[in-house]
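User: Before I run my own analysis I want an independent prediction to cross-check against. Here's the chain; please return only the structure tokens and, at the end, one sentence I can use as a sanity check.
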Amino acid sequence: MITVLTGDNSFELTRALDALVADFAGNAEKYDGSELELNQLPDLLMGGTLFASERMVVIKQLSENKRLWEVLPEWLGRISDEVHLVLVESKPDKRTRTYKELKKHVTVREFAAWSDRDVQKAEKWTVEEAKRQKIGLDAQSARLLVARIGMDQWQLFHALEKLVVLGTITPQIIEAVIEAAPAENVFNLLDAALRGDSDKVVGMINTLRRTQDPYMTFGLLAGQVFQLATLTVSDKSSAEIAKDIGAHPYALGKLASHANRFGRAGGKKLVALFADTDIAMKSTGIEPWLLIEKTLIKTASL
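Assistant: Structure tokens:
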């Protein structure tokens, strides 16, 4: 039997592998595929040993070993029924003959990393995982946790581990205990500018510049300005727009009030302002945090 676990969602992939290993009666043998030699394949794939009649052989990243990956199709029909071969491949080249042969003949389970289009899936998973960890977490709190942490399943999992000792969780507890991801901090920064609070903008930038990259920060700000501009020119609801552009509906909903206030004309001015800053960051020697601060203060005055 052969199982292939693949994809860039390392959390789900790890859980799937752990489940397979847990269901196996013996001890799984684990190997780094990049370090294997061709002469090791017969011992790995051709049946039981003196110590076990059935074996589970887990090989990670065999595709990094070009020679063995190329010859693997020749072994597919020769692997003993006593061996369950599990191949773990985070990013295999799907154009190779080996991957195509695996897709034809064996079980391939793919685990894709979540994007902002998977918000509902993330919120549902967070509620279910909280129950598994015996945490009282309702849908509203799960929505806030996902908005605060982002779509990284490992980060969501570790956040729940922090909350496990606190029993029933409220939004207030989440805000007090769980540190916001960079995107959430940047949203609060833009929100302060959109509300015209220049003093708060300056204070937040002084805090962010100690730990955050200015180019990443500006990229996140520009992305949120694009979302706000989209709201100003569309007649759809924020939830519908979030689905169309792959944005987080929670964050987009919070931008909706600003969009109504700015209108189309204000949205255009905001986009032009950030476009000018983008050019300045790429073409001048001005300190990037200074450009960001100047842009947000101008935003506050619009």
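Sanity check: The beta strands are 2-6, 29-32, 55-60, 83-89, 107-110.
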